[in-house]
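Q&A log
Question type: sequence-to-structure
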Amino acid sequence: MKSILAIFLVAILLFGCTQPNGGQTGGNGSTGTGGTGGTGTGSGNTTGTGGGGTNVTPPAPQFLKGVSISPKSYNSTGFADFFAKAQQAGGAVMWAGDWNELSNTSSGGPVVVASLSSQYNYVPIIEAQFFTQSTGQLIRPLDDANRQAYKDEAVAFAEKYKPEYLGLGIEVNILYEKSPSDFDSFVSLYNETYDAVKAVSPNTKVFTIFQLEKMKGLQGGLFGGTNNPDNAEWGLLARFPKSDLIAFTTYPDLIYKSPSEMPADYYPEIAAHTSKPIAFTEIGWHSAASPAGWESSESEQAEFVTRFFNLTSGMNKKLAIWSFMYDQNTVEPFNSMGLLRGDGTARPAWDAWVRAG
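Response status: OK
Response body:
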């Protein structure tokens, strides 16, 4: 649900994105980062989180978790800090942006995220978008020329980088709501692109992404509509039989004022509609005492992290991606969803996230 961040990452390649002094890359989540800099490696490097530190030792993951690209600052220093801390947040880093950015297979956001994965020891997750969620407007018409270009771009990127995960379309059920004809056109484009990508990179897991709250018929709360399960959109899953997993974004704070209000079957309900593995590619809960009537707090954000993992513990989930490491300059309430404060110190949700698994 967050707006796609238009991220230009070429500066990393030009200026370098080296690890802080003293840090070595360990296994998934094995590198701790301190609030004042410095890293430690190995599962034995555990320090408290008081006094502004962010060092906690994560458990051995039963699934892949991580964060989307969301540094404190969009320069080489900010990206170096982000990638170092991302090791502790989990074993995955997600890039999401304009599908057309896949056309440049030598530089740009998706290339940098894919290229740095071996240096920083994470699994890159690449997601390509073709419409604007807030309006439902296509970025480019899905005419024959653009359809062919989108397919060729995805194939060229997959052939060169062999990504483990490649998402095509983000929150596509929103497009269904706003323009069913464009949605139908995308379904055929997706199916064609899936086959073409598999031909050059058969191990890449290809999928599209749905917005879970809307999928469940929940349009009330900060969405401004009415919650009505009769308007659920689960039937759309059948339009994508070639998806290797079923992926969702989820922001239940748009519907519920407290994590405790979420029903016990909030996430397990998904299993009633698919037997495929599940991915959560955007997860968030805000920490600010706003907007009015939907005030939250840092402790409530941490409560949601714990509740999310409790409610999904019995599910066949493969990915869990928190939307923001640091707060980003975006609309409320998404602008206070960072796991880390602006000064780099950990919110309680950071510790809950790192320890979950």
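Response note: The chain has one domain: 63-355.
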